[in-house]
C-alpha cells in the first residue's frame, strides 16, 4: 500500500510539473511568434487532426516527421503541438537534431488555441 501511495505521489508531482511547464511555455511569447509568421506544426495523426485543429496549422505526424521534415523550411519558425504535449516535445527534439534552429513546443493544441483566443 505504501508503494502505491509513493507511486501515485510521484505521478501527481510529474503531472503538476508538466502543467506548470506547459503554461509557462504558452505564456512565453508564442502568440508573438505566430503573429510574426511562425508555423504551427500539428504532429498528431491525420485522423486526430481531422477531429479539430488550429486554423492554418500544418499536419505532419510524429510517425512521419523523420521522412517528411524535408518539406519544412529550416529558416522558418515552428511551434509543435499535439494532443497533450508529449509528441510535440519529441518532434521539437527531432527537428533540432536535423538542424532547425527556431522550433518551440506549444504543448496541447487545444490549450494553445485557447491561449491565442484570449490574446
Characteristic key phrases:
single chain; 119 residues; alpha/beta; Oxidized Rhodanese, domain 1; four-stranded parallel beta sheet; 52% helix; globular; Rhodanese-like_dom; transferase; transferase activity; GlpE_sulfurtransferase; Rhodanese-like_dom_sf
The CATH architecture designation is: 3-Layer(aba) Sandwich
The count of helical stretches stands at 6
- The percent range for helix content is 40-55%
Following the backbone from N to C, one meets helices and strands in this order, namely HHEHEHEHEH
Number of strands: 4
Average pLDDT number: 88
Q: What is the number of independent domains? A: 1
Tell me what you see in this structure.
The chain has helices at 2-26, 30-35, 46-50, 65-68, 86-97, 109-118; strands at residues 39-42, 58-59, 78-82, 103-108. The chain has one domain (2-118): Oxidized Rhodanese, domain 1. It has 119 residues and is of the alpha/beta class. Strands 2-1-3-4 form a four-stranded parallel β-sheet. The chain has six helices and four strands. The longest helix has 25 residues, at 2-26. Helices cover 52% and strands 14% of the residues. The termini are far apart. 23% of the residues are buried. Keywords: Transferase. Residues 34-118 form the Rhodanese domain. One of its GO terms (molecular function) is transferase activity. It comes from Epilithonimonas lactis. InterPro entries: GlpE_sulfurtransferase (IPR050229), Rhodanese-like_dom (IPR001763), Rhodanese-like_dom_sf (IPR036873).
Structure summarized in a few sentences:
Residues 34-118 form the Rhodanese domain. This protein is of the alpha/beta class.
